[in-house]
């Protein structure tokens, strides 16, 4: 009888989980990915879903299709949202089943952080999943359509006030994308609307945008958003958001029915029974330099959900796709060797953000790029990183089409159908 391989369960098939599944030695491990979605997606382009630039299918990839192919062949997929882990009896539990493990890898990423004001969850639009991005897209399109048939000027202006909170890459890219709609699409496709009625306000709590990038990049991003008629307010913190009124720390207010929150992340919560993992800032799992979770045996954590404080980087590495991918590769190498001999060191290849057509900033290792060269670099890097040839081609065609036509054909407002009634899975 064939010997049973040790079972490795990976929670989350994002950049970290899927890359580990690719690199792990499948002749030594029986690997299962558990993910609440049946597809891998590409968060850096969620803002393009929200702004109708891309459709969700072109940046998502079904796990089961991926698992037919070479590097992930033999890995199993199970749909489910992991809610509990028992570290003594070694199982994880989803809303559907209990799955035993010999080794566990927690790679389930992060979710929105409302910094204690969890009521915001019900009121703001967010971009942490493809589903959230679609809701955001529908909302923006709904506002434009409703404003087009509204005869009351004050009401129309209210409908067309968009507030984006957080001046990091996601906030900047999202505000820029709505700014592009205002600048290029409104006049042609919404002739009933006056461009000046649309307000896009980006709020950032510190004194500059894109704080993790160079000051020059921050300056360029600010300038580009200005071209796209986005009002940027630096050193501005939101105090509360009730009854469609954004109240700022200085007491002033902005009326907006569409607030897009990109301001913070926290670990996706999982309840632990038995021995508890050590947690760091943002509820992230503290790991050593081999990605082993402090305080637990046979449990590893990768990507956004973990933090690896070291002497030179007490706050760990940034929560970026490259960090998640490199950690996954490093863990696979150590497991393959069967010894903890290769500590993780992040090789920073640079960071970039785009602020609409021909406008981007890129801080690369030896060179900083701005404007069109940065924009083409940004497109190239994202294109090669998307999973699946069909997806790459679809995205490229969409981008070329929008580039030449200054528009997209994806501004479809598809409301979900109410019937037949279904209990939401997971409840
Ligand atoms: C809008 C946005 C823009 C970004 N832009 C950039 C960028 O330009 N460049 C960059 O480098 N990084 C960017 N990032 C960050 C980057 O996406 C993350 O660093 C990266 O996705 C981390 O990979 P991960 O595998 O740790 O987590 P994720 O990619 O988030 O994957 C987590 C997986 O776990 C699943 N999951 C979550 N909870 C559970 C659960 N309880 N049970 C089962 N499955 C679960 C999710 O469905 C998901 O598939 C961006 C992120 C966002 C949200």
TrEMBL record:
Sequence ranges assigned to domain FAD/NAD(P)-binding in this UniProt record: 7-328
Catalysed reactions, as listed in the record: a quinone + NADH + H(+) = a quinol + NAD(+)
Domain External alternative NADH-ubiquinone oxidoreductase-like C-terminal: from-to ranges: 349-401
GO MF annotation, one: NADH dehydrogenase (quinone) (non-electrogenic) activity
Pfam families referenced in this protein's UniProt entry, alphabetically: NDH2_C, Pyr_redox_2
Keywords of this entry: FAD, Flavoprotein, NAD, Oxidoreductase, Transit peptide
Keyword Flavoprotein applies: yes
EC assignment: 1.6.5.9
Family stated for the protein in its record: Belongs to the NADH dehydrogenase family.
Protein name, entry field: NADH:ubiquinone reductase (non-electrogenic)
Upper lineage: Bacteria, Pseudomonadati, Bacteroidota, Bacteroidia, Bacteroidales
């Amino acid at each position: 009888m064939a010997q049973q391989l040790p079972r490795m369960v990976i929670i989350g098939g994002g950049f970290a989980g899927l890359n580990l599944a690719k690199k792990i030695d499948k002749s030594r491990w029986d690997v299962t990915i558990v993910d609440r979605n049946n597809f891998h997606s590409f968060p850096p382009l969620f803002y393009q879903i929200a702004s109708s630039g891309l459709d969700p299918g072109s940046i998502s990839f079904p796990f089961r299709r991926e698992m037919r192919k070479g590097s992930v062949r033999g890995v199993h997929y199970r749909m489910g949202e992991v809610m509990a882990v028992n570290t003594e009896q070694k199982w994880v539990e989803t809303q559907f089943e209990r799955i035993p493990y010999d080794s566990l890898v927690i790679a389930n990423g992060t979710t929105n952080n409302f910094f204690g004001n969890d009521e915001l969850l019900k009121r703001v639009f967010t971009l942490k999943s493809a589903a959230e991005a679609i809701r955001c897209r529908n909302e923006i399109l709904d506002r434009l359509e409703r404003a087009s048939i509204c005869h009351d000027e004050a009401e129309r202006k209210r409908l067309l006030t968009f507030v984006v909170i957080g001046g990091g890459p996601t906030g900047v890219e999202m505000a820029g994308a709505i700014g592009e709609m205002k600048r290029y699409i409104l006049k042609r496709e919404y002739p009933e609307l006056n461009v000046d009625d649309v307000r896009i306000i980006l709020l950032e709590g510190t004194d500059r945008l894109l704080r993790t990038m160079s000051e020059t990049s921050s300056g360029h991003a600010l300038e580009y958003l200005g071209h796209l008629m986005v009002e940027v307010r630096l050193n501005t913190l939101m105090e509360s958001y009730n009854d469609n009124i954004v109240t700022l720390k200085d007491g002033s207010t902005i009326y907006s029915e569409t607030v897009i929150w990109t301001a913070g992340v926290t670990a996706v919560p999982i309840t632990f029974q038995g021995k508890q993992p050590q947690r760091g800032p943002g509820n992230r799992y503290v790991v050593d330099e081999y990605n082993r979770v402090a305080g637990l045996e046979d449990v590893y954590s990768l990507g956004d959900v973990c933090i690896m404080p070291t002497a030179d980087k007490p706050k760990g590495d940034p929560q970026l796709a490259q960090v998640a991918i490199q950690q996954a590769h490093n863990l696979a190498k150590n497991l393959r060797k069967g010894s903890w001999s290769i500590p993780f060191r992040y090789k920073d290849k640079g960071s970039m953000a785009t602020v609409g057509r021909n406008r981007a900033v890129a801080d690369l290792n030896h060179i900083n790029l701005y404007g069109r060269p940065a924009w083409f670099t940004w497109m190239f890097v994202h294109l090669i990183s998307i999973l699946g040839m069909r997806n790459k081609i679809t995205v490229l065609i969409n981008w070329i089409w929008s580039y030449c036509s200054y528009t997209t054909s994806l501004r479809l407002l598809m409301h979900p159908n109410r019937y037949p009634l279904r209990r939401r899975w997971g409840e």
